[in-house]
Design a protein that fits this description.
heterodimer; A: mainly alpha; Rna Polymerase Sigma Factor, Chain: A; Arc Repressor Mutant, subunit A; 8 helices; globular; B: Porin; 2 domains; eight-stranded antiparallel barrel; 11 helices
């Protein structure tokens, strides 16, 4: 039977060093998947995952267990924060000169028809500003207001960027589906 | 596709997505772990920034206070003109022994200002010079006469010589004399009061009243409702009639802790009742944010550190012995020197807040324990202008707030 998050945390807190590895084994591939949505270059993503796990394992004492799934959410957020921080340092993550346009919300796409790996890769191919906003809004489940706060931009800018990212991603998905005759 | 629906579908589709990692990644992490864990081990307990600021301010305050207390008082050394005045007074006394003045006791020497002296001289040109002063008169009167007399001697040389009267035959003072003495006493008292209103250095702590907690449901926007075609789906078009609809299982909680400030200011008198004060003030703001979506909790803790420069005008309302009541009003510019955002125990980057302007007023009470040192309390009100930044803090949530400032005031006068 698979070890639950509670058992894993209790083992780590009891001083079981092997439990640290089990935590890594449990979440490392998932963390890599998350990271590649932010930073598509694999070598860079690996650096981020590595730094993230060092943060996770050294600050595990600050984690507060709030039910099954809470450890996974915590890991996700640390990886996400590490990735955003990396993007700020290494990519041109600038939000100046942003123009606002009308939000068109009628794009439709059969996301489920596209392989997961490919959707993940498509998100990674988005322009850096779209990429970070779509990740925070979709996978971090932040409101537009919180995305704005995190990135130091206005809420309107966050909404506009997300709308454009969504449109672009939908277009990529549709192009793929068309190429596959779906 | 509607935004929320699209987000959900995308999130669900990639919920379990995993990408391979190299086999040696754990070894690389583990190789760094011991060092990281060592670094995590009980660090020497660092004093918080605000405490370090306080300690520094306290040190400066104590240093200044000690200097003020130990500095030789200039009041004990008469100035050259005063010495001259004393000498002349002695001479006059020698020349007219019959004038019974408490000359030897004298001169705790309040350095009477030229304005006061000239006024008194004008008064003293009246027949009083020919009179004697009753020994029973208050010290202040005799002291004053002692100080002023040399001036009289110089200004009124043409006055007829004094007719000495035997001590036992001293006449009672005329009402005009008593009136004059009273006026002189008042002038001296006023001058003393003015003198006590000296340059001061204040060291204080201040805080706002009460933490603020807030707990909100999050409304669906009208656009979102329209996108979802919410009303017709729910079949409540006729009953909802524009009432707000809250997002299910989503909640925001905020807690804004009361601001804490420590300041070091200097107060410089510009008249007998008005003074200007300025200095440097450290303010710490702390806010906690919690977003709860489908029981997933996302926590952030933000701490803002400001260094402010106040400029206030102080008006002395009332003074009695060592007690002083005053009103103060002015403005302050606070510069955000550091901001720390922690999300789930990890540090995050965030832009600093813009300059925070505020205006305020307070009513203060000061009690001087000793002439050089007073304790004061200032309950007041402040208004913080919206600086247009996206940083959410106590000032934005409650722009008008009451505060209490308590401190020490060191009198630096000569």
């Amino acid at each position: 039977m698979q070890e639950t998050e509670r058992q894993l945390i209790e083992a780590i807190r009891a001083g079981d060093r092997e439990a640290l590895r089990r935590l890594y084994e449990h979440f490392s591939r998932y963390a890599m998947g998350v990271t590649l949505r932010y930073v598509p270059r694999r070598d860079d993503a690996l650096d981020i995952v590595q730094d993230s796990f060092i943060s996770i394992l050294t600050s595990i004492s600050t984690f507060e267990y709030r039910g099954e799934g809470s450890l996974r959410n915590w890991v996700t957020r640390i990886v996400s924060n590490q990735a955003v921080s990396w993007m700020k340092d290494h990519e041109q993550l600038s939000f100046s000169e942003l123009t606002f346009d009308e939000i068109e919300d009628d794009e439709d796409s059969a996301i489920e028809e596209v392989p997961k790996e490919l959707v993940n890769e498509m998100i990674g191919r988005l322009p850096v500003r779209y990429r970070v906003v779509v990740n925070l809004r979709t996978f971090e489940e932040l409101s537009h207001k919180d995305v704005a706060l995190k990135l130091g931009i206005s809420e309107k800018a966050a909404i506009t960027l997300f709308s454009r990212a969504k449109r672009k991603l939908a277009k990529m998905i549709n192009e793929y589906l068309n190429s596959q005759g779906i | 596709m509607k935004e929320e629906e699209w987000i959900k579908r995308l999130r669900d589709h990639l919920a379990d997505y995993e990408a391979p990692v190299p086999d040696d990644l754990w070894e690389r992490i583990e190789a760094r772990l011991p060092q990281e864990l060592v670094a995590q081990k009980p660090k020497a307990r660092r004093m918080p920034l605000w405490a370090r600021w306080t300690a520094a301010a306290a040190f400066v305050g104590i240093l200044i206070g000690t200097t003020a207390l130990l500095w030789p008082s200039h009041e004990e050394t008469p100035t050259a003109p005063m010495a001259s005045a004393t000498k002349k007074a002695d001479n006059i006394q020698n020349e007219s022994e019959e004038i019974p003045m408490k000359s030897e006791k004298t001169i705790e020497s309040e350095p009477v200002s030229p304005a006061v002296v000239s006024l008194v001289v004008a008064k003293m040109t009246e027949p009083i010079v020919a009179e004697t002063v009753n020994k029973s008169q208050p010290d202040t009167a005799s002291l004053y006469i002692k100080e002023v007399e040399p001036q009289m001697a110089e200004v009124e040389p043409q006055q007829p010589s004094v007719e000495p009267a035997p001590a036992e035959e001293q006449p009672k003072m005329e009402p005009s004399q008593q009136q004059l003495i009273r006026e002189l006493d008042e002038k001296i008292a006023e001058y003393k009061t003015h003198r006590t209103h000296r340059t001061t250095v204040s060291l204080y702590a201040s805080n706002g009243f009460g933490n603020l907690s807030n707990r909100n449901g999050v409304l669906m926007s009208e656009q979102m409702l329209a996108n979802y075609d919410y009303d017709s789906r729910m079949g409540i078009a006729s009953t909802r009639s524009g009432s707000p609809v809250y997002l299910a299982n989503y909640e925001e909680r905020q807690k804004y802790y009361q601001p804490i400030s420590f300041g070091l200011t200097t107060n410089i008198p510009i008249s007998s009742v008005l003074s200007l004060s300025s200095g440097v003030v450290y303010t710490r703001l702390r806010s906690d944010f919690m977003n709860i979506a489908n029981s997933i909790v996302y926590e952030k803790k933000m701490t803002l550190h400001y260094i402010g420069i106040p400029l206030n005008v102080q008006y002395r309302v009332w003074q009695w012995h060592g007690l002083n009541v005053y009103a103060t009003a002015g403005g302050q510019a606070d510069f955000n020197v550091n901001v720390h955002l922690e999300a789930d125990g990890l540090d995050q980057e965030i832009e600093k807040d813009r300059v925070q302007w505020s205006i305020g007023g307070a009513l203060g009470v000061q009690y001087n324990i000793i002439p050089q040192l007073g304790l004061y309390a200032e309950p007041g009100i402040k208004y913080y202008f919206d600086n247009g930044s996206h940083i959410r803090n106590y000032f934005k949530y409650r722009p008008t707030n009451f505060n209490l400032q308590i401190g020490l005031r060191l009198n630096m006068g000569k």
